[in-house]
Every structure is written in C-alpha cells, then in structure tokens.
Amino acid sequence: MTTRPGRAAIFEQFAADGIEYMFGNPGTVEQGFLDAGGASDIEYLLSLHEGVAVGMADGYARATQRPGLVQLHSGVGLGNGIGMLYQAKRGGSPLVVVVGEAGVKYDAMDGQMAVDLVGMAEPVTKWATRVVDPSSVLRVLRRAVKIAMTPPRGPVVVVLPADVLDEPNSEPAVPTSVPDTRVVPEPALVAEAATTLLAGRNRLILMGDGVATSGAQRELTAVAEALGAKVWGVNSSEFNFDATHRLFGGQLGHMFGETSARVVGEADSVLIVGTYVFPEVFPALENPFKAGAKIVHVDLDAYEIAKNFPVDLGLVADPKLTLAALNAEINRQRPGLAPSTPIAVSSTRPVFPEPPLEQDSVLDRFVRRLAGRAPEDLVVFDEALTASPPLAKYLPPRQAGRFFQTRGGSLGVGIPGALGIKLASPELPVVAFTGDGGSMYTIQALWTAARYGIGAKFVICDNRRYHLLDQNIEQYWAEQGITPHEFPAAFDLSTPELGFTGLAAAMGVPGRRVEKLYEVDTAVEAMLNHDGPYLIDLVID
Questions:
Q1: Enclosing domain of residue 135
Q2: Is 213 in the same domain as 270?
Q3: Helix 319-333 and helix 217-227: axis angle, to 10°?
Q4: How far apart are CA 331 and CA 194, in angstroms?
C-alpha cells in the first residue's frame, strides 16, 4: 500500500473524482498542500478575493452538474466566502470547500486566526466537518463529495489542519460512490397525484431549479400541456421551462409575498415541482392558496415539502421520472384532455420590430442587438436585477445550460459565475449581465479572467445607484403610509463615479463605455469579436 503525506494524497483523491480545477486564495496554513498540488494535474485558479473563488466554483458546478472545489484560508478566508456559500446553499450547488488550519496540536493555544471553523460554516453549508485523524483524510473527502452531490445538493466544508496533512497517509484514492436517487413513487401514488390535479378546473404549476437538476424540462412541458396549466417560476434561476411557451406565466417575485399570493390565489389544483415555496424576503404569513385548493408537491428534498403550508400529497421523488409517470397517468385518466401532439416550439429567438428612435433605450437596443448577432448557443448569466426585463424579452431562456441567474439574494455572483461557466464550456460564448453595485462585490474576478485567458464577456448595467432598493423602499413607504420623498443617500453610487473601463483595464481586461444609442452596434460587435475577456460599461440611466 502506497504511503505518502496527506497533503499529497488529497490531490490523488481529487483526481480520482475527476476534479479539474481548484478555485482559491492561498494562505500560510495551506502552503504545504498547495505546494504538493503543483505536482498534480489539477489547475489552481487564483482569485483575489474568496467571494470570487466561491462564485467561480458555483458557476462551474451549475454548468457541469459536478462538484466545484474551493480552497479557503482559515477563518479570515472562510469569513470572506460566507456570503457566496449562502447563495450556493440556497441554490443547491455541490461545492466542496477545503479550509486550511494551523493544526490540531495548537488547539489549546488560542493562537492567531484560531476560530471554530466548523461552527462558522454550519449555517451556510449542507455539512461541515474537521479532519483530526491522519488515517481518515480521504475517507472524509469522499464523504464530502457524496454529501455535496446527493440531492438536495449543497456546499460542504472540510477543515484540513496542516499537521494532519503532514502525517503519512496510506489510504487508497478511489472514486467517490454517489448514491442514485432516481426514484419514482409507486403507481398508486402517481394515480392519486393525477386524480388530485385533474379535479381542479383552474390548474397551476410552480417549478424551480430541481427541474433543471433532474433534466426534467421535457417532462414538465408535457404535464403542463396535458393539464393546460400555467407554469410559474419559483426560485427558478436556470432553464426549467421554455419562456416563450404559451403556458409560461413568468417568474414570481423574490421580495414580497403578495406577489405570489396574487398568482396562486385562484388556482383549484397546484403542482409544485423542484422548488420550495415561497422564497421571498418578506413572505406571506397566511396561506396564499385558495381554500380547498389541492396541492401536490414533488421534490427530492423532503424538508421543503409542506415546510410552510400544508399539501395534499407530498412525493419525495425524482422530478424527471415522476413527471413522466404523471403525464402517462393523466392521459390514461383523461385520454382526450391533452393535445394530440405536443405544441411545437421554435428553436430560434423571437424577433421584435425596431421601436421608434425616441422610444428606444441604450439597454433595450444593446440586448436586442446582442440577441440578433450572437450565436444561438449563447450562454447568459443574468444578475442585472432591475435591468433584467429586456433580457427576459429578447433573450428568453429556451435551452438547458444556456441561462443562469443569481439566487439566494446574493450580489456579486454574475462575473465570477460566468467565469466558472466558461471554464466548464470553453466552446460556448458566455455573457454576464450585472449591475454597477453588484459588480463591485467581486470586480477582482476580472483579474482572474485576464490571468487565465477566460474569454467570458461582462456587461455592467450602470445606473449609478442601488436601484432595487429604490423600488423596495417605495413599496415600504406605501405600506407604512409614508409620503414619498428623496431616496436615502446610501442608495447612491454616483459620487465619485465608478470608472469601470479603467478598473477593467487596470486588471488586464479591455472594454468600452456605452452611453448613446449610436454607440451600441459597434460595442456589441467589439465584444463578440474580441478573443478573451471583455467588459462593457453600459450607462442605462
């Protein structure tokens, strides 16, 4: 049996699991295993902030449906990455985060950087642990991969003390065994679900990212057509349902429960699949569903089923297999209900006429030109928030793996997330839209893009303020009976002006500022034709 230091063995384990990249920011307590990693084929991608490292790994994991490996430096590094870990947890991203530590032998000393790393990580992870036995390093890492990849997926943290990794390790490095959770309910329960949903006349479907994770988009479409049910996105940040389909209702809001209540309040039967309800910041405390409405919830996360409101039938099952079985049962019970053939959906983007010049805007024209000139396999990362409507109009989600949004309420995911997606699919064009405020959370990611030649493109929707906060406080004023007045100065980003093209250039990424309609066409061409990362500072207000 081969014996080598644990610091070398961990890279054998990562290689056995097919991991290609480690996203991180180094520190002294990780120097031993980072030095050993230089002899492996795993590429270390250096970021200048831990939020960038976690954000890149998150994008990579979402695009590949495989573990994203992150290295963080003790308490300070983990602390800097916690915001991004939170959004990864809320979004179900399978991240494996290794956090360095000085050593077990120093536990009694309360030295510099000493902190309960597991305690720090637990609120924002699916699982967190610390390795204390040199003979169980690889065993724990395999357990971490298994837990991260088993639905409901999520980030895990493994604390690796330096002295444990310096000890001899004779564990074999073998691929992690990830259990198969492709389960379907017994036929009687599928029949009950179909009967329950067919009982209503006004039918509704609420869907989320569990659909994409399961690859259940076709099956969801078939069920929606069989039921004639409108489909609404709830915590839906990937391609789950064709946004141009006649049954697509739109996205529920993420801020106020009243938005969801208005949509679901008249439904007689509701199918919830691949999501939790409801994910607003200020959710409705009273049940928003109609009295007597029949609710069926399908998800692989048992915790989310009936978490806030009762359901008539909860099925802990794989969405793809369950929806296929449900569609067959619906058509067996009501053979004439569904259309004889599925509704044809064009693979091309919708085309819109040019508006009169005086009605056009820089943002609308930019997205419209991008939609007209970019390849059909364009990947969009939408973190534009208040500037998102033109993206939904001109670049609607239509294919798996071609659309991603921020989730979990975090800002700063767009730029590093797009880098991770581009690494996962280097042959695809990738464009991230973000806001001026959100971009500044992780603007250091541009340096990483330039260092490694990661050719994603970035569009900063620059309105010189946190405009989402403007919208939210207007609703707050209305609810509280407060007379509208000047927005708080804390929402303003105009003074001093953020020079995004200068920032990008300083980190090795070229770009241009676009303020006028006549500048849009050449800017889109320049961005699409540039070989490497490129930034557009799009002044939209």
A1: 4-169
A2: yes
A3: 30
A4: 9
